[in-house]
Every structure is written in structure tokens, then in C-alpha cells.
DNA sequence: CCAAACTACTTGATCAGACGTAGTACGTCA
DNA sequence: TGACGTACTACGTCTGATCAAGTAGTTTGG
């Protein structure tokens, strides 16, 4: 399991990726991340929900209430154009970070 | 310039790498990191010094006063065996993180 | 049929760590 | 002498991840 400290800084990236193709809601996002992470990482609920609220405040996503025929009401989040650009920027920053940190990683013997 | 939020989590790794070959001191470590980062990232003094103190407290490094013929006294830090293992662990975690986050990064069009 | 598990979220408090600001201290060089 | 480079230290602030706990509806197994 990868520690959260290592993912810190990329929480937004993971969440935004889950919204690229279609709007989604908290629980589904967390399940998607869990699945893509193949059991190596699990985002805590509070981390996720605080992230989507932060993203909404910054204009990267908008929220709307899902029409729920059954089950508890869901709050869906949709990526805005600004959010898509934000995601692309994060991806680019990630690539740069990989190159940078890579220079500090040596093979262990 | 890569934002510090993206490096957060790898600060210890960068610092430890600078101590792999020989003991070093704060200022020299920061210069080394700056150089290896090729201008893409600069670790703030406060971040660096709080990191070495944290590492010392956890037993990853030990400190000693350098014999200074000139200039202000320097505090040198030497990697312990535990620190070396800690570094290797961090590197391994880094590789896993790269693989993990990579699955969330899509090519921008 | 009831309890447990799963879905779906919220609130509030706490904590680590990165940062800004500022200051101390010593040396060299113009 | 005063600017600049070296070499730190102290203190306060802020963000963001976490823990703990609770609320609430749905589904499923014994």
C-alpha cells in the first residue's frame, strides 16, 4: 500500500481523471480510484470529499443533484473546461516531477 | 519551476540522496538539490533544515560539528544504516507511485 | 424479520509539514 | 564599510490529509 504522503499533491489529478469521460459522484469516484490503483492505494472518504469541494470552489468542477429513483441522493460532479485544462496542467507537472525525482532515485544493490 | 506541493512527500528522498556518498551539511545539500533539479525546483531553507532535523530524530542521519578552519560552523549530517534502508524504501515507494499515478495520466490532445 | 453490510455522504477536530518572514552570525572583497 | 555569499535558527501561518464519529437509505443472509 502506497502511503498517502506519496500521493499528496496528486489527489486532485486522480479525482479529475475519474471525471474526464462523464460526470460522477463521490462514492463512484472512490471506487474507480481503488480499482485503477489495483489495491495499492485507497483514498480516504474525507480526503476525496474535501478534494471535490475544493475543486468545485476553484471552478474545476460543477455539481448537481442526481435524479435518484432509489437509494440516497447523490451529488454528481461534472468537469468544466477550466477543470479539463487544470487536469492537463497537472499531468504535465506530473511528467516533470517524474523526470526530476527520477534523478534522485538510485538503484539499490 | 515545479511547485513544492508536487515535491512534498519526496523531500526526504531528495535530502537522503545528497548524503549517500558522504556526509554533507545544510547549505551544500540545498545547492546539490538545486543543481540536480536543473533550475526546475528549489528547496526552501526552512523546508530543508526541518527535514534534516526530522531525519535525525528518526535515526536516519546523525549530526556532528565540522572542523571549520574558516567560515561559520557547519553541522554535518551522515547517513546511518537505517537511513540508507529508509532511502531504499523511499525509492521503491517512488517507483510504485510512478506506476500508480501513471495510470491516471492521459495524453492531452 | 432483523441485523449486518453496503452505499453515500457530512461534520468537526487534529496534525504534519511546507512556507513566509525575520533575524543571527561569520567571512570576503571591492 | 557595505554588499554579497555562506550557514543557519525561530516563530507563526496555512493547507490538506487524517481520525473519529455520525447520519441515512438499500440490500442481503440466516
From TrEMBL, chains A, B:
By its UniProt entry, which Pfam families does this protein fall under?
PadR
From which domain of life does this come? Bacteria
Q: Which residues form the Transcription regulator PadR N-terminal domain?
A: 15-87
InterPro entries hit by this protein: Metal_resp_DNA-bind_regulator, Tscrpt_reg_PadR_N, WH-like_DNA-bd_sf, WH_DNA-bd_sf
Protein name per its UniProtKB record: Helix-turn-helix transcriptional regulator
